Records
---
Amino acid sequence: MTRFSKRMLICLLAVLCSGAWAQEEETEHSNALFRYKNDRGHLVVDQSIPPAAAARGYEIITDTGRVLKEVPPAPKGEDAVRYAEQLRREAELAEWDARLKRRFSSVKDIESAKKRALTELRGNLSILQANLSGVSAQLEDQQRRAGIMERNGTEVSEAVQTNIHQLEAELVEIRKQIRAREQEIDQRAARYDRDIERFREIKS
């Protein structure tokens, strides 16, 4: 295994570990979906429901397929759609509330979970930033070597050219992962803040 593939493996492992941990720590309610039969009798899963399907009855499910609510045939027309949207939102909130109550007993618990989650993500970000610094230094070294060869009137060796191309590609990928991790940190913090606000509401 080359030094480049080892370094990329470290980046990949860091990202995979963070993703798995993030999935385990996920606390926000999942979006509820409609499952209904269309005019041809085919089963459809969607975020919205047409009036005709709402009138025939439908299910409200989680994004993993678990049924939250079975809704019998409702009034036709726009009233049916408004009623369906109201039920979907109520199902989402009920699912969110249940998950919060199962996981936390106080706002302090959520704040502690938030702190652990952000600490983990920031640690992963630090690893990526360290990798970025290391790769940048190696790229500068290879570019310096190429410059020396050119000044001496010799052709830049294929090995140096290959190294430069690989290092440049690594920098692009690492920067992309850093941006994604920074965005994930912001999103996770906002998600926990919403959990805290909702938990206060249901406890009051």
---
Amino acid sequence: MNKLPNKFNTNAVRAGINMTEEGEHSEAMFLTSSFVFENAQQASDRFKNVEKGNVYSRFTNPTVRVFEERLASLEEAEQCVATSSGMSAILSLFMSLCQPGDHIVVSRSIFGTTVQLFNNILKRWGIDISYVDLKEDLEWKAAITNKTKFFFVETPSNPLTELCNIKDLASIAHEANIKLVVDNCFCTPALQKPLLHGADIIIHSATKYLDGQGRCLGGAVLGSKEDMTEVYGFLRTAGPTLSAFNAWVFTKSLETLNIRMQAHSSNAMLLATWLEKQKKVTKVYYPGLESHPQYSLANTQQSSPGGVLSFEVKGGMSEAWSLIDSTKLLSITANLGDVKTTITHPTSTTHSRLSDQERIEVGINDNLVRIAVGLEDIDDIIGDLNYLLK
């Protein structure tokens, strides 16, 4: 592949392409489990990594490699390791770079299933977990021990769109020889590049905006070659591998990532502004609003506010469910990052496995509704929320 200029849209369309002898213009899809060697010596050299080349699609596949190289170019990371889902990306990272006795400090404001992974799986393998307020630097500092190896955050968080100052948190981490991991799912590299603000490792659920149309599961871990070599080794052995077909879908989706993310942000901003004016809405959580407590940080750390917002309706769970059930256009599903607008009730879906106390600690109330704003006409999205107008 020819060296490309470091321009986002160009890399989104052309990075990682290695044309075969067939001369295809669109990226090829290699749907094969294994690869044939010229002779026994080459087979041996490939297995020993003496010779670079494809061996077995669990850990070497040209289609997956195109996606990895393209996403790495967009995040400006040295290397990307693609995985079968966003959750497997998180699991692969910590299973490969942690050992029993290590300590991870985690933001309380994270996806409910990620909490379950930390509490019910990583703790079982002797990894200690502490939770702190995403926004409070002093809590992060106080949680550090001589065993702390990682900080882990989502910014913006799910579902309340809270932010951390990546640069400041990275400084705290690096002073103590700790690595900062940022889940960049809500923003993608189109709106935010955590590595440029000091983060060490990025996590993605490619299932969300990287795909953008709700078709495939996938994930990715990005960072230095040194760290990703360890993650790749875990993936080669344990096998939470991204399929070639899904990788091809994600690769094609990256071509329109920037355009889509700008459109999601534009629609979300219009919807958030409208929601703030509704009498049945008591609070709106969206980084693009001046009412958001971290509005200034969002303007400096992100190029746009993103496509996800949450809001509280007057009442409780009954009123939140009534609003959701009254919609006809919006899709009632917990997924996000789709061209179709999705709506969900976090307390009873994405964060339902948290205890009542855990939800209270992170501010997820029974009357909270989350919307991932799609690319429909904004008037139609607003019109579908007519429950709020009654």
---
Amino acid sequence: MFKKLLAAIICTCFVFCLQAQELNARVRVIDNQMPSTVDRKIFRTLETVLTNFLNNRKWSQDNFKSAEKINCQFLINLESMVEPNVYNASITIQAARPVYASSYVSPLINFKDASLDFKYVESQPVEFNDNRISGADPLASNLSAVMAYYAYIIIGFDYTSFSTRGGDPYFQKALNIVNNAPEASKISGWKSFESNNRNRYWLTENLINNRYATIHDVYYTYYRKGFDKLYEDEAAARLEVLNALLYLDNLNRETPNLMVVQFFMLGKADELINLFRKAPQQDKTRVVEILSRLDITNSNKYKQELK
């Protein structure tokens, strides 16, 4: 009897290990702007609930080892309390990808979404169903829909960085959320006519639209053929990163002001400067020219650091 029980326990543990979830997420709720009368305990509970929601749910059919989990962080900045339990907030999503044969992690996503309106009542579970995204209370459903959307986006970009078009199934899942997103007067971020083409709708549209398919080559070339090969041949790997930037520059020339182009560049400035600092002068000149078009905000920084 004991042997059977032990075998059952071992089997259960083995299955659990095989079905390890994809994300290693941390959620932080910034409540500095909330009224002093509000009990901060609810926000600490919300952090725990959302962390468990992201980390304990299985988002794909694949089995991730513990070391393969995607490190990511969600910063929810509460900006106002519209009414009891209803909040207007922004959310910053950050994710990183390890570089092969090194201790370095490269930023994969560093994006601030300014449109997070939601309802949260302490002790109520945060639930999500791919087949029924909008529940009876749209503002409550919006919280889980936004978190699930970015979970799929993170996983999609991670897969794309390892395999050409590898993230497509997860971008399709994100599209499904966009198409079935909760609707209410206070909810925004899901529609094509909102936010000057800079919201969840447009990010997904850019990723699904075959007209912009080059973006998938950009991610694969930048990470898998570029950074992952630095340990083998730094000069050749750096050239692949330059090729990725050339693809991105061509895409930007064909369709200026495309959201996914700017999305890619967010958080990349220091990484690119460090990579090309040791490059031949002709490559430095070339990359500064490209980056000054792609990342106008950091144009002077590139010019100063890569002289």
